[in-house]
């Protein structure tokens, strides 16, 4: 069974909203929390940020920012790049998926979820009523 991303409860709420905003649609389609949406939007404004920089900008603990980034990366909404430091070592820098690609990913995710629901409907028989 394919795990569908969109949250059914959020989907219902979204349908009742006359003009849902980007943050609401993003949260619904990818079933992410508000703090993950804020992290994504901050990355849109500050590409190449480190976890420490994001933690400062978001006023959140670094471990929480790391979890948000992990979720965003799993959903295809953020990318990580390793940068070598002059004094040795490295740091990871994060960037949000560019908006045109993010929109396409939202469409694709919603299309997959819709196909999953259609398949479920087709599987129902008289015994399911």
UniProtKB/TrEMBL annotation:
Domain Transcription regulator TrmB N-terminal: start-end pairs: 26-96
InterPro entries: ArsR-like_HTH (IPR011991), Tscrpt_reg_TrmB_N (IPR002831), WH-like_DNA-bd_sf (IPR036388), WH_DNA-bd_sf (IPR036390)
Pfam family, one: TrmB
Protein name as it appears in the record: Putative DNA binding protein
Upper classification of the organism: Archaea, Methanobacteriati, Methanobacteriota, Stenosarchaea group, Halobacteria
């Amino acid at each position: 069974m394919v795990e569908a991303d969109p949250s059914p409860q959020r989907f219902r709420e979204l349908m009742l909203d006359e003009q849902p905003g980007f943050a609401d649609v993003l949260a619904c389609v990818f079933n992410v929390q508000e703090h993950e949406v804020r992290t994504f939007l901050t990355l849109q404004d500050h590409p190449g940020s480190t976890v420490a920089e994001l933690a400062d900008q978001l006023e959140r603990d670094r471990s929480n920012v790391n979890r948000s980034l992990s979720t965003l990366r799993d959903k295809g909404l953020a990318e990580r790049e390793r940068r070598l430091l002059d004094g040795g070592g490295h740091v990871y820098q994060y960037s949000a998926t560019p908006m045109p690609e993010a929109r396409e990913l939202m469409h694709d995710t919603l299309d997959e979820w819709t196909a999953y629901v259609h398949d479920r409907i087709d599987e129902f028989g008289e015994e399911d009523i």
